[in-house]
Amino acid sequence: MSTTEETLDRIESLDLAALGRADIDDVLEYVHVPTARLPEYRSLYDRYLRQRWNVNELDFTPDKANWSERMTDASRNSFLSIASGFHHGERQVAVELAPLLFGVPEDYKIFLTSHLEDEARHTVFFDRFYRDVVGLEGDGIMAVLDGSWPYIQETFVGPFGLLAYLTDDLRRDPYNKHLQMKYATTYVIWIEGVLALSVMKITLNYARDYRVLPTFYTGFTATCRDEARHVQAGLRFVRELLAEDPAYVKDLHDTLRCLLTMSAARSSYIAYEPLGWDEDRVSELFMNQLHRKLGMVGVSLPPDMEDMLSMAKPTLAGG
After folding, report:
1. Helices and strands: H and E segment counts in the chain
2. What is the pLDDT along the chain (319 residues), one digit of tens a residue?
3. Range of the domain at 68
4. Whole-model pTM?
5. Four-CA torsion 58, 61, 65, 71, nearest 10 degrees
6. CATH code, 187
7. Within a domain: 319
8. Number of domains observed in the structure of the chain
9. Residues 207 and 213 sit within 8 Å (Cβ to Cβ)
10. Does a structural domain hold residue 317?
């Protein structure tokens, strides 16, 4: 067994406490497997049963002290500008994933029930972080979400707005495979596979390198491992659609063109430097994540889309 395989096996078996000591780069690598090794849906469901974690076991006391005593105003604002997209993304997916269950294969339906439960847990994780560390108050989940909304970047509504439209279309026509491919491209490849994993690397690298927010690091690393299951299942679904009819790649490309156009149309940008990143490094991360996900399903981008990708400025949000 290679060192890489040993690392991936170790990441798969860690409990919640041990994930707090894991290297986030190892967990991100855990997402990426060769196309031929994308796990079966039921295998991913079994993995979910082994990897479930309890958000109520987390104690945010040290994070609260770090937030006020060891982070600057600039780093707090940059952190919230990124993390709030994930906060809202988790909640939106928790209410918009269900229509995909209607028309997909039975084993994928079983897995998607676990995916929904994960999204609910992640929403509660962020609710606790914003209450216990940032200090937002409110009665219920939506009140805290309203409190973090001012930190959302303007083009958050782009990919998630498209997802909302596709959710409504899929609800009315759940067996339409063109819609399924567009939905999977928007959510699995773009929102989860590119934006969410980029958020995780930036925020968790910051927490690791600056030795702050240890409980956030633990919970968000566990969230990243959950996302690995979601992305692998979704990419398997995309691969199966393409195997059934390679012409569905047009739906994938058209959807990515729309998303890349929205990503390039921005009038404001997140200040990444307080978190130890610059914009070029973020763009490189963004492009690498997209290419790796497409490589896992055997899809390449035509030259015009590669040009669009080089000009895109991603809104870092997740779900």
Report:
1. 15, 0
2. 444 677 778 888 899 999 999 988 888 888 887 655 789 999 999 999 999 999 999 999 999 999 999 999 999 988 888 888 888 888 888 888 999 999 999 999 999 999 999 999 999 999 999 999 999 998 988 998 888 888 877 656 788 889 999 999 999 999 999 999 999 999 999 999 988 888 888 889 999 999 999 999 999 999 999 999 999 999 999 999 999 999 999 999 999 999 988 876 554 556 778 887 877 787 788 888 899 999 999 999 988 888 877 766 555 444 5
3. 3-311
4. 0.91
5. 10
6. 1.10.620.20
7. no
8. 1
9. yes
10. no
